[in-house]
Amino acid sequence: QVQLVESGGGLVQAGGSLRLSCVATGRTFSRYTMGWFRQSPGKEREFVAAIGWIGGSTYYADSVKGRFTISRDNSKNTVYLRMNSLKPEDTAVYYCAASERPWHIGFMEYSYWGQGTQVTVSS
């Protein structure tokens, strides 16, 4: 079992930045692919970014490429999502998730989820 706790959300103006953190407890963090997803009211949960545990490969949704950066610190059991140039459409609850796959495959491969942290971007 893996427990995930997100933090770092908040209210920011358009063009601003935030850094989300997700701390994992439980089994070996370094052997999990970690992902960030988001969900806004009335919409389905969507993929944002992921980082694999083999080679540290990174994956991004087209909507955040060039603005968001995912990274991990295995010594701290933590995955980060640095979000720059935020837009109002980035407003959502952001969820951290863990997959036992060595790289990002898809939504259904993530078995463990955090409770989410709210990000609100004002125009």
Notes on the structure:
The model has no long low-confidence stretch (mean pLDDT 95). The strands form 2 sheets. Strands 2, 4, 5, 6, 9, 10 and 11 form a 7-stranded mixed sheet that branches. A 4-stranded antiparallel sheet has the order 1-3-8-7, with no helix packed on it. A hairpin with a 6-residue loop joins β4 (33-39) and β5 (46-51). The protein contains no helices and 11 strands. It is mostly beta strands and 123 residues long.
In short:
With 123 residues, the protein is mostly beta strands. It contains no helices and 11 strands.
Percent of residues in beta strands:
over 45%
- Multimeric status of the protein: single chain
Helix segment tally: 0
Largest sheet: 7 strands, mixed
Key attributes of the depicted protein:
mainly beta, 53% strand, 123 residues, single chain
SSE blueprint:
Layout: E1 2-7, E2 10-13, E3 18-26, E4 33-39, E5 46-51, E6 58-60, E7 68-73, E8 78-83, E9 92-99, E10 110-113, E11 117-122
